[in-house]
Amino acid sequence: MALGRAAAELLDGERFVVGTDTRQSCAMLQAGLTAGICANGQDVEILGVVPTPVVAWAAADRHVPGAMISASHNTFADNGIKLFAAGGLKLRDEVEAKIEARYLELMSASPSVMNDRPGPDRVGVTTSSHEPEDWLDHVVSTVNGGSNGALAGLSVVLDCANGAAYRLGPEVFRRLGADVTVVGAEPNGVNINDGVGSTHPETLARTVTKVGADVGLAFDGDADRVIAIDGTGTVVDGDRVLAILALDWAARDRLRHTTVVVTVMTNLGFHRAMADAGIGVVSTSVGDRYVLAALDDGGYSLGGEQSGHVICRDLATTGDGVLAGVQLLDVVVRSGRSLADLAGGVMTTVPQLLENVRLPRRDPDAAAALAPSVEAVEREFGSDGRVVVRASGTEPLLRIMVEHIDPDVARSACDRLIEAARRTVT
Questions:
Q1: How many domains does the chain have?
Q2: Does a structural domain hold residue 191?
Q3: What are phi and psi of 391, to 5 degrees?
Q4: pLDDT at 144
Q5: Catalytic (active site) residue 307
Q6: Whole-angstrom Cα distance, residue 104 to residue 100?
Q7: 63, 98, 132: which is the final residue of a domain?
Q8: Whole-number Å distance between alpha carbons of 218 and 163
């Protein structure tokens, strides 16, 4: 409720749109959030169980703020609230900081302050809208003019993670004419991301090979990311999806400024492949909102993360796993090549190691203590590898990423950095 009031006070708009994923706790959090927004005088349109990009789409379409209640790829025991500014855009850091400060102020106030009417002459009302036909129509329209047969002849397995895309995801691909098999589409409130979805691609891989499908797509709990599986059961991660789209879009003059935006975690092999193709690469901090900010600041059209966040900026205001999957399969159909063929030839992955070092507490500055060790490793690597060390934004962890063309060299360097972190940080 406090967060609802804080957001309502600081985000312009006469009403909010609010969606949820399938977690048991969503109804409880939606009730409190909605109460806070309505107490400030704004109305709330309840979208029901929908993917995060549907909330962003509705916020853009109605030019109002929005909120998605979801913990994305986390287990059902976690939950969270993603806020969108009017127009469906992720919040900039300075706006988020103001909302956080106001939220903390309200949380620390006496109960009488929270119960006081905040000032408006009216209390907002809630309405329900459970038919996101406009988003469905838009996603379908992005390939081949929305032809119902744009993906005809393609057999697709969708893993909806028992999450927000369990109804709408399959509907999109069926409208496009694909032969669709669905797993992870029986949510019960506690099984979201439980052995299914983008964090468990092995489940989808087994199904793809079992039924002999051409391709599989796995979404996370709120469907703002996608991981693909080719017909052989091999994972096609966000780096390869981005590379396939970047090369195709550049060839068709759709890649604005011939540049793609990625994060520092994107594999070195991606950078080399783009350089060979004459495509520029802009790197940002980890997080899709930083990718989005760079896209808008530079006027670019494509960006994303290795984890499967893909932002088609000309088509959406945020990462959309279903939309990205449609764009990828459109390339497969138009090229006449299998996803395995496309993904295998688009880039050569440089061996990459990702390790977490647990900290006694969350520390945003933990990586700074390791800087001398990182610099020493990077001098040894030269152009054959790189190191990225960052503190987790949500957990007491120091994340260490090491890449090198020689996996043994990468392993040795990573072990040294882990030991240095344990000496100097933990």
A1: 3
A2: yes
A3: -85, 140
A4: 82
A5: no
A6: 6
A7: 132
A8: 11
Residues 82 and 209 in one domain: no
User: How much is the pLDDT for 111?
Assistant: 62
Instruction: State how far Cα 12 lies from the chain centre.
Output: 25
Average pLDDT value for the chain? 93
- The H or E element containing residue 172 is helix 168-175
Rounded-to-integer distance, Cα 426 and Cα 414, Å: 16
Kindly report the CA angle at 284 between 360 and 12, in degrees rounded to 5? 90
Rounded CA separation 163/219 (Å):
8
Average of per-residue pLDDT across 49-62: 95
pTM metric for this prediction: 0.90
Q: What is the CATH number of the domain that holds 217?
A: 3.40.120.10
Nearest partner of 413 among 379, 390, 367, judged by Cα: 379
Selected catalytic residue, list 70, 72, 198, 301: 72
Alpha carbon distances (Å) from 386 to 306, 351, 375:
16, 11, 10
Give the Cα separation of 94 and 117 in Å (integer): 27
The C-alpha atoms of residue 102 and residue 10 are separated, in whole angstroms, by: 9
**Whether residues 407 and 339 fall in one domain:** no
- Which is it for strands 66-69 and 15-20: parallel, antiparallel or unpaired? parallel
Question: Please, what is the angle between helix 371-381 and helix 407-424, to 10°?
Answer: 170
267-316 confidence digits (pLDDT tens): 999 999 999 999 999 999 888 889 999 999 999 999 999 999 999 999 99
Instruction: Give Cα separations from 302 to 72, 255, 293, 315 (angstroms).
Output: 22, 7, 12, 10
Farthest CA pair distance, the chain? 68
Residue span of the structural domain in which 65 resides: 2-132
User: What tokens were used for 14?
Assistant: 């006469």
